[in-house]
Amino acid sequence: MIRRFSKHKGAMIGVLILAIVVALAVFAPLLYPRGPWAMVQRPFLQPMAMEGFLLGTDTLGRDVAAGLVHGARVSLLVGLVSTLVALLIGVPLGALAGFYGAWVDEGAMRFTEFFQTIPNFALAIVLVAILEPSLTSITLAIAIVSWPPVARLVRAEVMAVKSREYVDAARLSGLSNRRILIEQVLPNTVSPIIVLASLMVATAILLESSLSFLGLGDPNIMSWGYMIGAARTVIRSAWWLSFFPGVAIVLTVLALNLIGEGLNDALNPHLSRKGHA
Amino acid sequence: MSPVLEITDLSIALPAGADRPLAVSDMTLTLNAGEILCVVGESGSGKSMTANALMGLLPGGVTVGGGTALFHGQDVLQLPETARQQLRGSRIAMIFQEPMTALNPLMRIGDQIAEVFAAHNKFTPAERRQKALDLIQEVGLPDPKKIIRAYPFQLSGGQRQRAMIAMALALEPEVLIADEPTTALDVTTQAQILQLILDLRSRRGMAVMFITHDFGVVAEIADQVIVMRQGQVVERGAAAVVLTHPQHDYTKRLLAAIPSGALPDAREIAPVPVLELRNLNKVFRTGGGLFRTAREVRAVDNISLSVARGEVLGLVGESGSGKSTLGRSVVRLVTPDSGQVLVDGVDLAALTEEELRHQRDKVQMVFQDPYASLNPRHRILRALIDGPIAMGKSKSDATTRAHELLEIVGLGAEAASRFPHEFSGGQRQRIGIARALAMEPDLIVADEAVSALDVSIQAQVLDLLRDLRARMGLSILFITHDLRVAAQLCDRIAVMQTGQLVEIGPVQQVFLTPQHPYTKQLLAAVPGADWQQAHDLRSGT
């Protein structure tokens, strides 16, 4: 599996980009110990105009590079945590629905559809507005709008796996339903869940950026979306203020998508989209 | 007779990392007009690859390594793709194993046949339609006017295969390649399709290359036979000669492995029932709603029978006869609508889920598909001890017993620490048997347990079951569609048709003096029955 993944060129590029972003995020306090909010130079300093300010400064004279590096912490944190929370909601719900069927399935799926009928972004905005913008509320809002696809996927996978003969065999061994679900069925559904999760992290980063762009971000935290949002009024005179955070978002999301695709090909070799010779 | 197709020294290369470098090596064959050539071999012998290479349908990574295939003096392997397209369908046609997946599910049968003409720019639409109608008539489909407007899902398996054959015949090909065309069909349907191919051959003078794994089919239709093993031709010759006087050891082994029609001697069995079914019923309802009545299928229709301790009861029937539902009701993977399933005096059908869990050791099952019946993420040991531990055995006892059982089924105790993917189909089936035995059941239900295996492997697993029956006094409900297999192992045979038990009796009685017309029909449809009898006489069994 790992060998197949490492052969996937796109995925390796994705891993490389993501590794750089993670490293920058981890070492942010060492690279820019004064934090992203410190005013360090005159405002509107062009990129590469001065030694030590590679990406220039913003409207208040804050270092754009420092903002990017510290913003990476927020983006990655929100992406990972919200995806984890979404999995914690979606996987059990989907598993129960798929395994028990009948009214459990009906109930769980109608509940899921209730969330799916409301546009993701609109719901996220409403949730953040109600809960007061903070890192926790943003993460929670993103998780709440992104678990329904997980539940549906897990349900479908569980339904497929539970009709396998080894599940029948486990039932004949006298194992309880709970053990069959946890030990026999769920482990065989992880590959598509992993793939979906990697893509969800990307979507979560985009959502967080969009929320911050609209000013619904945590006001005390520097994030990529906030940087773009704050710079949009000066976009014609100071392009670099929105350009670099934008590039950071694009690269990170692209990296995660490449990794997701690589994982997909590695975990489901039969479905890989390599054409016939 | 003139040769239509001459293959010389054909090699087909597999991608690096495959189990062998060449799928087919130095294959040479000649196909004459009006002749049926059977290519026989077990799975993985390269027989289908040869056909795919001819048609230009090799899967990705597999390439023709060398050799020529002359079709009327023209090497089809060297032709550019466009020229091949012209050849495919019009002069060399192919039919496949699974008629459901080979037909487009969203297209009417008539349109699919007409499309063959359209693809080669022949005739006007009206003529195409007429031709399609004629073809449907020729392949013996009932009510052509209706069939032409039907979708594939509305036809039975045999009808679909006939429709496939009609498509293949549309442009009057000189060569028909048939890749296991009857393997997915019931015996009675198989007999009809084989007859159809024989008729068409003599009517049209086509050459047929027939790929199969079943020597019964070979005996039924072949003029010439080629036996393949691991990509190499090990024997060739006229069918009559190869079947009666095989030269190569492998052919001899294959022929010997075929379940013979010879009946085992009757054994004395004390009539102590271990399983008793009383008036068992199971109805499946599909569809239905406010405005439509649901479609009902009586899968098990008021069946009563019993299996004595130490007896093997064969449950025989075609697909859809309800035999699997009956088997699953006995282990209660399916809960019957009414009736009793008495195992050792306990009515399994009446237990609650919780009570049932503690009685699961009474009946165990051996499944059909060796690849789906073991959890790919668990080691073999886990599959063997989970059940006994759930029944209250200590882990060390269960482990010791698991190692013993792996020895008994011929795998060796060290197999316990390995994962399922490290084993072949036959080995996995042995593991499945060991898993069933680990629960020390009163009865084992074997649902088509050897159907997915090659003949030689099948023979080994049957030997194992026979050996276990003798050593452990096992009681088995052996479900199969293959009468020859049933004859090998069973003491009594029960025949099912559309949910009903039509005949039950000792093997000798059912095989030699069948009472019910359906049983007679089933016995007559077994391919190569005449040859089989001669074969058995010769081999002195």
From TrEMBL, chain A:
It holds the Pfam family BPD_transp_1. Keywords: Cell membrane, Membrane, Peptide transport, Protein transport, Transmembrane, Transmembrane helix, Transport. InterPro entries: BP-dependent_transpt_permease, MetI-like, MetI-like_sf, OppC_N. Residues 72-260 form the ABC transmembrane type-1 domain. It is a multi-pass membrane protein. The chain crosses the membrane at residues 12-32, 76-100, 121-145, 193-217, 238-259. It is found in: Cell membrane. Belongs to the binding-protein-dependent transport system permease family. This is ABC transporter permease subunit.
TrEMBL record, chain B:
InterPro entries: AAA+_ATPase, ABC_Ni/Peptide_Import, ABC_transporter-like_ATP-bd, ABC_transporter-like_CS, Oligopep_ABC_C, P-loop_NTPase. GO terms for biological process: peptide transport; transmembrane transport. It is a peripheral membrane protein. The keyword Translocase does not apply. Its main location: membrane. It comes from the Bacteria. This is Dipeptide ABC transporter ATP-binding protein. The lineage of its organism: Bacteria, Pseudomonadati, Pseudomonadota, Alphaproteobacteria, Rhodobacterales.
